[in-house]
Design a protein that fits this description.
This is Ubiquitin carboxyl-terminal hydrolase 47. By secondary structure, this protein is of the alpha+beta class. It is built from 32 helices and 52 strands. The protein is flat and about 125 Å long.
Length: about 1300
């Protein structure tokens, strides 16, 4: 029976579904291991099961949560169950990641260990296909002798990878190649760093030494290269720049040569990598030869010759083409100094000797002159494992010239010499070179020696995968110790075979045709490095015991550093990091992060939190405790009574990267006792409402259970507040959306919609208000007003006729139209004002021994208040109202406060109460709870009212302040409004000119203006309302039928005197268009256009205004109006056009006024015509002419060219034109115009691509094609470039002299680019 009972218990036990991803290798990252375990399973058993199924040795890997960025591992030896460790049962997926332990890959279980594994675990050892196109990581690479996809860890390959900082794969590939070059590594080790002479941080050789030591001795799978790049003078941005690996090789070698001056390694780069070749020209008539000696560090080999349809098939073929001479004949004849005339000649290159380490660069990046883009050539090019270079060495021709002219680019012999003399000179020059010099021996030896000594073996293939726009580098390198090839792909190092090397030849399986490159694999060899096969010279890698003493010291230092890092990492892995909050008695709400070791007890953690929150000297430690807290819901989840000695790891559910809860350091007064918080309780913030004084008290906290009934809940509140439970009304506010009266006695809190944290309003009085329907009651009206009243700061105009008088008269009382519903005593009492709300007496604290502690009330009150009301504020209250007035069309975010955001903006005020904890009247700014308006509240008070603000709807005009019957719209629906002077505490505002307005945000702008009339002193039609946004920008609010729903507490409003718009009127900004001025757009005036008005009528009203305000006296027939789009002139408006019929118009519209010269105006007669602004470009003088307007009857290109020919005198056949780029006036550097514009597009009409000239105002440049550009010297060009740059920057146009400018690769020997701003 006991056995059967156990079986039944096991069946009933919840199970935990674990999905584990192995991220220790690129070949296993796509694998998933699935376990469905009992919830009581210990963590140690989970590790055993994972090790068994994955085929790893238990203890050689870590498991960490996979749904967060922080990868803190689970405890290996932990006996804590999965359920208590944070795993979720019941079919929910728990994602974990299998990671390296201490930077080392997991150890593969031996055959005997894995013999008992099932089939699925055996398959586990054969990984999925890794990243495509990566040698050493490509799943399609396999051979009969080696399973490429088998899992290899560092102990099997013996090598350490390099971490890719972002796009530093090219650097990693080169560094691994240098490390695997014995001669370079050993020479670098022999160099000794003198700390007294140089900063180790900026020493490139020293940082390379450190990196090589770590690559040779580290136990990590991969190490960082940040110290090396820092020594280059690079910042973090360089990690995001990908460069060419050959360019890096050259720049790094240059930097090392500079750093190694005056040392034994001064000539190391030349000794290992430098070769010499002869660049010659030989006359075919007399045999005279002129030549120059050049040095090289690598040989660039062409993949496909220019203009050819077929690529070279092999490196040998490309080398042969490299030394193949070309014949100079015809117009390319060479002037022979001996013949004293131009003769046919042969020009070419000859290798004189090769370096010890031969570098071949396969030039896969080319330029396509058809598409004008860089391309990558993916053609197949084979390369041998052993390369015989003897066929390419310079052997004297049978017809050796009698005399030669020789110059050595890096040598001392110059002038005329015989060939044997040249050989002797080379003998002297190259005797110390470890490269292969063939010129110091007899001619017989010269023929034989290359055959014996010029065999090179391949040991490094640097591969590029991708396109010319970007890609990935990695290296395939052969070890000289055992001949094993490995793929060094950033942090992943794996073994490969010769078959894998052959796959880097590139190309496809098809024939070598012109288009074969387009369909070939983009992964192919880019750089090849060979080493000369010479047993007497070939070095071996130095073992650790054979390293120089200073390197042994460095090894020890790095080992200690790594051990320290490992210990620190172990501490981090056992540290719980969790958010900590505290209501500080002085500093209010504080937030920090508590970092505590998992073995520390709750008592020790409380002491740490006590010090972290700086409570010493403020509250004693005995008056503090840590409780589980939900900051989002402001909910105290549970307390930990009796668990003071429990480890924090157990209380928090283990070490995790993040927790679903927080901790709160709770405080109490010495005479108080902490209230226990039990799991499963819900927290309720209770606001007491007094209908007689119309006050709403600060919240107190009550904890209840969801299964309690409303009757039991009322009894609980009665104990906490002292109110009568029999007459109590409880109103629940749910999600700021509605108010629900809880009136069903036996209904549970859960059924009523209570959650973890709730807010209720309670009222218990003898008034008859409870007898009426809740939606008609005074309680509902009070709560409704409480949720919708906001506080606005209104700045009155400088000269407001009735300001001083009305402020004194009006501020004392309020204009609450709802007072008709109240009794006379309420009407006459000032305390009935909604703003004059006082808190209930603090004697309620005497009930603190009941279900609520006073400190909890203080907690809940303080948690709400620190957030302030700044979230919705347009600017800081300390800012003066010195605002910049701008139109909506000048700013992109002018609609940012439309109705869609009103809920967010209006909920910025964090207070839940209309009063402070202190007694006495309060300012509404600290008391109003501006929750968003909801449909359930709105429907009763303001049915059908629009909630948008300053948005363009179907009626594009403004709204009249009066309806069709002439009745004020403000009278249609009254909503709360109260004004008072600004507080004297706010010294930043002029209290004589500033009002604090408390208003229901459902009020319309029309009603709001009507209520402001007594304070402004003029009718609402005679002043304008401007809303002040961030940066003190002002925008006029003109939509009178829209509400203030997008406003929130402490938003600012500026009132300006001036006629408000009537229905059908639009405020318009008028700018003058000055096409030939440096600043072509000049603001003139603000004016008003009306619907139905003609353009001529608007001009008649505008011109007197211009004369009065700007002193411009203009004739109506010499000006025209045209559309303004940003700074671009657009459609020309004709006099007979009617606004809103022929011309669409909107609020805050902008137009150009243009003063006309000549008879242009009379040529524009219909909308079918096209007005184009033209400008002549003069290449001979590098100057642009003034703008001239031409009127076209059609959109044909031929008509445009005829008009341009007519005004310029340029023959049609010689006339070129191009459309200007950018915004008017389409400024462009004179250095770019001639080449960069799209001259003479092949189109017949203007309204098609690439012109798209469909409206007036387009800019067209034209030129005479026979006019030659001005020849500029380099100095003149640089000077002109500076002038153009300065001119264009002043006009706000970007200067660009290249369509694509790449950042140059540089290594800074002085520590960084800051010392030389001209580097880039």
């Amino acid at each position: 029976m006991k056995r059967i009972s156990q079986i039944h218990n096991a069946a009933e036990e919840p199970r935990v579904l674990c999905i584990i991803q192995d991220i220790t290798s690129a070949k296993t990252v796509n694998e998933r291991l699935t376990f469905n375990l009992p919830a009581s399973t210990a963590l140690s058993k989970l590790y055993e099961d994972v090790a068994h199924k994955a085929g790893y040795v238990n203890g050689s890997f870590d498991l960490a949560w996979g749904n967060t960025q922080d990868m803190a591992p689970l405890d290996h030896s932990g006996e804590l169950s999965l359920l208590n460790s944070g795993f979720e049962p019941g079919g929910k997926k728990n994602f974990l990641q299998l990671t390296d332990k201490d930077g080392e890959q997991p150890q593969i279980a031996s055959v005997t260990d894995s013999s008992g594994m099932d089939d699925s675990s055996q398959e586990r050892l054969i990984g999925p296909l890794p990243r495509d196109g990566t040698v050493g990581c490509s799943g399609d690479y396999s051979s009969s002798s080696y399973s490429y996809s088998s899992i290899l860890n560092k102990s099997e390959t013996g090598y350490v990878g390099l971490v890719n900082q972002a796009m530093t794969c090219y650097l990693n590939s080169l560094l691994q190649t240098l490390f695997m070059t014995p001669e370079f590594r050993n020479a670098l080790y022999n160099w000794e760093f003198e700390e007294s002479e140089e900063d180790p941080v900026t020493s490139i050789p020293y940082q390379l030494q450190r990196l090589f030591v770590l690559l040779q001795t580290s136990k990590k799978r991969a190490i960082e290269t940040t110290d090396v790049t820092r020594s280059f003078g690079w910042d973090s941005s360089e990690a995001w720049q990908q460069h060419d690996i050959q360019e890096l090789c050259r720049v790094m070698f240059d930097a090392l040569e500079q750093k190694w001056k005056q040392t034994e390694q001064a000539d190391l780069i030349n000794q290992l990598y430098q070769g010499k070749l002869k660049d010659y020209v030989r006359c075919l008539e007399c045999g005279y030869e002129s030549w120059r000696i050049d040095t090289y560090l690598d040989i660039p080999l062409v993949i496909r010759p220019f203009g050819a349809s077929q690529a070279y098939g092999s490196v040998e073929e490309a080398l042969q083409a490299f030394v193949q001479p070309e014949t100079l004949d015809g117009p390319n004849q060479y002037f022979c100094e001996r013949c004293k005339k131009k003769c046919d000649a042969r020009k070419g290159l000859r290798f004189l000797h090769f370096p010890y380490l031969l570098t071949l660069q396969l030039k896969r990046f080319d330029f396509d002159y058809t598409t004008m883009h860089r391309i990558k050539l993916n053609d197949r090019m084979t390369f041998p494992e052993e390369l015989d270079m003897s066929p390419f060495i310079d052997v004297e021709d049978e017809k050796s010239p009698q005399t030669e002219s020789c110059t050595d680019s890096g040598a001392e012999n110059e002038g005329s010499c015989h060939s044997d003399q040249m050989s002797n000179d080379f003998s002297t020059d190259d005797c110390v070179d470890e490269g292969i010099c063939l010129d110091s021996t007899s001619s017989t030896e010269r023929v034989l020696k290359p055959k014996n000594l010029l065999t090179f073996e391949l040991f490094s293939v640097m591969v590029h995968s991708g396109s010319a726009a970007g890609g990935h580098y990695y290296a395939c390198i052969k070890s000289f110790s055992d001949g094993q090839w490995c793929s060094f792909n950033d942090q992943h190092v794996s073994k490969i075979t010769q078959d894998d090397i052959r796959k880097t030849y590139g190309g496809s399986s098809g024939s070598r045709g012109y288009y074969s490159s387009a369909f070939a694999s983009s992964t192919n060899a880019y750089m090849l490095i060979y080493r000369l096969k010479d047993p007497s010279r070939n070095a071996k890698y130095l073992a650790v015991d054979d390293l120089p003493e200073h390197i042994k010291t460095l090894v020890l230092k790095e080992k200690q550093s790594e051990e320290q890092e490992k210990r620190q990492r172990e501490i981090e892995r056992n540290t719980c990091k969790i958010k900590l909050f505290c209501v500080h008695p002085v500093k209010m709400m504080m937030e920090s992060k508590l970092e505590v070791h998992k073995d520390k007890t709750l008592r020790e953690a409380t002491e740490m939190a006590y010090k972290l929150m700086e409570m010493e000297g403020v509250v004693s430690l005995d008056c503090c405790r840590l409780v589980k807290y939900d900051e989002f819901h402001e909910y105290l989840e549970r307390s930990y009574e009796g668990e003071e000695d429990t480890p924090m790891g157990l209380l928090l559910g283990g070490v995790k990267s993040s927790y679903m809860f927080d901790l709160l350091l709770e405080t109490r007064r010495p005479e108080q006792v902490f209230q226990p918080y039990k799991p499963g309780e819900v927290m309720v913030k209770v606001h007491v409402v007094d209908l007689k004084t119309e006050t709403i008290a600060s919240p107190i906290s009550v904890r209840a259970y969801l299964n309690q009934t409303i009757t039991e809940f009322k009894q609980l509140i009665a104990q906490a507040t002292g109110l009568c439970a029999e007459t109590m009304r409880v109103v629940l506010e749910r999600c700021y959306n509605d108010l629900r009266l809880l009136y069903v006695p036996n209904k549970t809190l859960k059924a009523e919609g209570f959650f973890r944290s709730n807010k209720v309003f309670v009222e218990s009085s003898e008034l008859t208000d409870h007898e009426v329907a809740f939606a008609d009651s005074l309680l509902w009206k009070l709560l409704d007003r409480h949720g919708n009243t906001i506080r606005l700061l209104v700045l009155l105009p400088e000269q407001s006729p009735g300001t001083n008088r009305t402020l004194c008269q009006k501020v004392g009382g309020d204009s609450d139209g709802q007072e008709g519903d109240r009794n006379d005593s309420q009407k006459s009492s000032d305390t009935s004002d909604f703003e004059h709300i006082e808190s209930p007496n603090h004697d309620v604290d005497s009930n603190s021994s009941l279900h609520v502690a006073a400190d909890s009330r203080e907690l809940e009150n303080r948690i709400r208040t620190p957030a302030g009301s700044g979230a919705g504020n347009s600017s800081d209250p300390d800012n003066h109202f010195t605002c910049e007035e701008r139109s909506d069309s000048e700013v992109n975010n002018d609609r940012s406060t439309s109705s869609v955001d009103s809920d967010i903006l209006s909920s910025s005020h964090s207070s839940d109460t209309l009063c402070n904890a202190d007694s006495g009247p309060i300012q509404l700014a600290n008391g109003l709870d501006s929750h968003s308006i909801t449909s359930s509240r709105r429907s009763k008070a303001h049915e059908g009212k629009k909630e948008t603000w300053d948005t363009a709807e179907e009626d594009s005009g403004t709204d009249s302040e009066y309806d069709d019957n002439g009745k004020s719209k403000a009278e249609a629906q009254y909503l709360y409004f109260r004004a008072e002077p600004c507080s004297q505490d706010d010294v930043s505002l002029d209290t004589q000119k500033c009002l604090v307005i408390h208003v229901d945000k459902r009020i319309t702008l029309a009603a709001f203006k009507q209520n402001l009339e007594p304070y402004v002193g003029v009718a609402s039609t005679q002043f304008k309302v401007f809303r002040v946004y961030a940066n003190n920008q002002e925008f006029e609010s003109v939509r009178l039928n829209e509400t203030l729903s997008s406003f929130s507490d402490d938003n600012k409003i500026t009132i300006r005197l001036g006629r408000a718009l009537k229905k059908g009127e639009y405020r318009v900004k008028v700018y003058q268009l000055l096409v030939n001025e440096p600043e072509p757009c000049k603001f003139l005036v603000d004016t008003v256009f009306a619907k139905g008005m003609t353009v001529r009528q608007s001009k008649e009203e505008l011109l007197p205004q211009l004369k009065e305000q700007t002193k411009l006296d203009l004739s109506i027939d010499r000006v025209r109006l045209r559309k303004k789009t940003w700074k671009n002139p657009g459609t020309v408006f004709l006099d007979y056009h009617v606004y809103e019929e022929d011309i669409s118009i909107s609020s805050n519209w902008e137009v150009f006024l243009e003063v006309l010269d000549g008879n242009i105006h009379f040529k524009m007669k219909s909308m079918s015509q096209l007005a184009v602004l033209t400008r002549r470009w003069n290449p001979a003088t590098m100057k642009l002419g003034p703008f001239q307007e031409v009127i076209l009857e059609s959109s044909g290109v031929e008509e445009l060219k005829e008009k341009l020919s007519e005004i310029s005198g340029i023959p049609l056949d010689n006339l070129d034109f191009a459309k200007g780029r950018g915004t008017f006036p389409c400024d462009i550097s004179v250095l770019e115009i001639h080449q960069d514009l799209d001259w003479n597009p092949k189109v017949s009409t203007l309204n098609v691509w690439p012109l798209y000239i469909c409206d007036d105002g387009a800019v067209v440049l034209y030129r005479d094609s026979t006019e030659e550009p001005l020849e500029l010297s380099e100095d003149e060009r640089n000077e002109l470039m500076k002038k153009e740059s300065s001119r264009l920057l002043k006009t706000g146009h970007r200067v660009s002299y290249s369509p694509r400018k790449e950042k140059a690769l540089k290594i800074y020997l002085d520590g960084g680019p800051a010392k030389d701003s001209g580097h880039d």
